[in-house]
């Protein structure tokens, strides 16, 4: 009897009397295996909730710090991505949209606002005129540095709680329990 999994994938039994039998059997076995695993796997909701809470606290404080520096939190995230990506070469709006997980036109709007404030500069890519390259200006470097130093100090203080919570989640996810 052929392996139902490979037979289904390759379509070997299509059009034969056994065409659906092997594939259905394979699908049912696969589904049962996944359901069995998810029913028996323990979920530590308290630790997962704690992890989300700690991340939200950290991000919330970063948002407050960005606004205190006179920029919006997403603008800070964009400045940070520009600086973090510049060692890889020219930073395009498409790259920024991907890194911020926003749509291209939203990244364009963020860049527009930062250009107006003199924090970034943009120009057309020399090799591909469809792309727009973005770089930090001196004023953007100053704002970013102040916020980044604040972030690092905050991370030093918050890291032990974040790391301990993440370790608990990883340990539980790997089935080692407490």
Tags for this model:
178 residues; mainly alpha; Arc Repressor Mutant, subunit A; three-stranded antiparallel β-sheet; 7 helices
CATH homology superfamily of the largest domain:
Winged helix-like DNA-binding domain superfamily/Winged helix DNA-binding domain
What sort of overall outline do the alpha carbons produce when their principal axes are compared? flat
* Helix percent band: 55-70%
The side-by-side strand order for the widest beta sheet comes to 1-3-2
Topology:
Elements lengths: L3 H7 L8 H22 L4 H24 L4 H13 L5 E2 H8 L3 H13 L3 E5 L7 E5 L1 H36 L5
Antiparallel strand pairs: 1-3, 2-3
Task: Describe the 3D structure.
- The structure is a single chain.
- This protein has 178 residues and is mainly alpha-helical.
- The chain has two domains: 4-40; 45-173, Winged helix-like DNA-binding domain superfamily/Winged helix DNA-binding domain (Arc Repressor Mutant, subunit A, Orthogonal Bundle), CATH 1.10.10.
- It contains seven helices and three strands; from the N terminus they run ααααβααββα.
- The protein has helices spanning 4-10, 19-40, 45-68, 73-85, 93-100, 104-116, 138-173, and strands at 91-92, 120-124, 132-136.
- A three-stranded antiparallel beta sheet has the order 1-3-2.
- A hairpin with a 7-residue loop joins β2 and β3 (132-136).
- α3 (45-68) packs antiparallel against α7 (138-173) and α4 (73-85) crosses α7.
- The longest helix is centred in the C-terminal third of the chain and has 36 residues, at 138-173.
- The radius of gyration is 25 Å and the shape is flat.
- It starts with a helix and ends in a 5-residue tail after the last helix.
- The mean pLDDT is 86.
């Amino acid at each position: 009897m052929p392996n139902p999994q490979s037979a289904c994938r390759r379509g070997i039994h299509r059009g034969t009397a056994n065409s659906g039998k092997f594939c259905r059997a394979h699908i049912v076995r696969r589904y049962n295996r996944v359901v069995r695993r998810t029913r028996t796997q323990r979920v530590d909701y308290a630790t997962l909730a704690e992890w989300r809470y700690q991340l939200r606290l950290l991000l919330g404080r970063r948002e407050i710090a960005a606004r205190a520096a006179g920029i919006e939190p997403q603008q800070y995230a964009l400045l940070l991505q520009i600086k973090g990506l510049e060692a890889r070469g020219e930073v395009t709006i498409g790259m920024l949209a991907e890194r911020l997980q926003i749509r291209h036109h939203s990244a364009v709007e963020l860049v527009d606002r930062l250009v107006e404030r003199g924090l970034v500069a943009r120009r057309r890519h020399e090799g591909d005129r469809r792309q727009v390259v973005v770089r930090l200006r001196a004023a953007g470097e100053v704002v970013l540095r102040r916020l980044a130093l604040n972030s690092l100090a905050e991370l030093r203080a918050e890291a032990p709680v974040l790391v301990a919570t993440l370790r608990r989640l990883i340990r539980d996810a790997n089935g080692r329990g407490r």
